[in-house]
Amino acid sequence: MAPLTGQTLFTNAKLADGRLVDLHVEGGRFSAIAPAGAEPAVAATDLAGQLVVPAFVEGHIHLDTSFYGDAWRPHIPCSNGFDVRERVAFQARNLAAAAPMDERARNQLELCLGQGSLSMRSHVMVDASVGLKHIETILAVRENYRELIDIQLVAFPQSGILSSPGTAELLDEALKLGCDLIGGLDPASFDRDVKGHLDIVFGLAERHGVGVDIHLHDGGSSGLSQIEEICARTSALGMQGRVAVSHAYALGDISAGALARAGETLAAAGVAIMTNAPGNHAFPPVAALRQAGVTVFGGSDNIRDSWWPYGDGDMLNRANMIGYRSGFYEDRELEAAYDVVSHAGARALGLDSYGIAIILFTIVIYSLFFPLKWRSSKSMKKAQKLAPKMKELQEKIKGMKQSDPRLKELQMEQLRLMREGNPLGGCLPLLIQMPFLFALYRAITISLDFRQASFLWIPDLSAAEPYMIHMLPILMTGTMVVLQLVTPAPSADPVQRKMMAVGMPLFMLYILWSAPSGLVLYWLVGNIIGFAQQFLINHWTKSENDKVESPPAKKPPSRKKQVDSATAGT
Question: Rounded distance, CA 367 to CA 233, Å?
C-alpha cells in the first residue's frame, strides 16, 4: 500500500494525564505534540477533548488461518475434550476449502488496523504438509502493509517438529526468508521429547540471532517443568527479553507457592507470558505475575478460525476480557489490563527500546567528541601546572607602573602561558554537545514515540519519574561528582575544586529533578562514559612531569675543595 502523505492537525486531544494538546501528523505519522491552541488551527480536526492513547499491540495472532471475511465455518468440537492434535486436523480440513490465504490475511489485517493496532506478532504455520507456502504468502502481505503496521512473523511448527519429519529444515529456511522469531509447540505432549524439541528451537534461535515464542498448552506440573526448562535455556544463552511463552495454561492451575517460584524464575530469565484469557481454560494469573516482575502481554490468538468462532481484533475489548476474568475492579487494576495490550506488549515485542536508543545515542556522541575531550584534558592539566606561575606574574604586574619597561615583557609572558594552558578548553566539549542535548530534549518532549515509552523502572521516558524519590537524577548526581573528581581542574585551589566537584552536581540535581527521564538518562550515561574516557586519558597522559619531583641529592664536595678548605683553615 502507498504511504500516506500530507499534513494534518488534530486539536484539543486529551492525553492520559488529562492535558489537552494539538497533534501534528505528517506523512502518515504523528510528528509533534503541542499545547492546545499553541498554533492557529487552520484546516484542523477538533477532537473536542476525546481521549488519545498510543496504538495497541496485537501480541499473538494467526494471519494465515483465520476465516474472517470468508464463508462461515461451523465450529467442530473435539471428540474427548480439548486436544491440540485433533484441532490441527480440523484446521487442515477447513483450510483446504478456504478462500485464498492472502485475501483472508488482508481481511484480518484491515480488521485489526481499524481497531487501533499498529504493531503485531503473527505465528505462521510451517510443517511438512504446507512447506513454506504460508510463510511466503504472509511475507508478501506484510510487505504490502509495511507502511501501516509493524508485523513480526514467527515460524510456527503447527504439527510439531520431531512429529513432522523435515520441519526442522523448513523452520531454518523460514528464518532465512525473513521470519523474525522461531516458534514451538507443546514439547512434552505433542513431540513427547522436551529436550529434542527445545534443542532445535533454541539452536535455530542462536544460529539466526532471533527471538523465541513457544505455544505451551500443557497444564500442571508438566507444563510448569517445561516453563522452567525454557527459562534455563534463555538464561544460558543470554536471551533475556527475547523469549515468550504463549498461553502457559500451567501457570493457572498450580498452587500459590509454585506460582510465586515460577514468577521469580520467569522474571529472572526475562521470559514474557502471553495470554488471551481463553474462556474455558485456566490461564496465567496476570496480577501475581506482574507483581513478580514478569512481562505479561495480550493477543487475540484466533479470530474466527478452526479453533473457535470468536474474535474481533479489538485489543481494548481483549483488555476488558482479561480484566474481567482476572477480577480487576480498581482503577490501578484497570490500568494494568490496559497495559497488557499496550506498553507490556511493546516490551515483549521489543518495540519500546527507546531507553536503549538513548544509551546508544549517548555512546555515539561521546565517542565522536573523545579526541576533543583528550585535547581539552591536556589543556586543563597544563593550565593547572602553570597556575602558580600565572599567579606569580599577576602579582609582579600588579605592582608595576605603565612606564616600567619590564611590564610589556611580563604581559607577553602571561599571554604565552595562557595560550599554552587555556582553562576554557575544558568547557569546549560540553558547549559543543549542547545542541545535541537540546535536540534530544525536543525529541523526547514533542515526539509521540517517547510518550509512555518505558525503560527499566521508568514508566515514561518523556516525563519525570512519578515516584517520591527520583533515582535517575540521584544517580546522575553521584556519577557527576565522581567524574568531577577525576577531571583536571584549571586551578589548584582546593576550594575551587570542591565547588566544581560538589556544587555543580548539586546544581544540576536541582535543574534536572523534574526533567524528562530520557534526558536525565542521557546525562547519567554520559557521566559514566565520561568517567571511563577520563580514566583512560589520565592513564595515557601520565608522565614524569605529573609527578612531584624530589629535590636532587647534594653531591659530596670534591677532594680538591676539601683540600682547599683545609688549607684555608690553616
Answer: 35
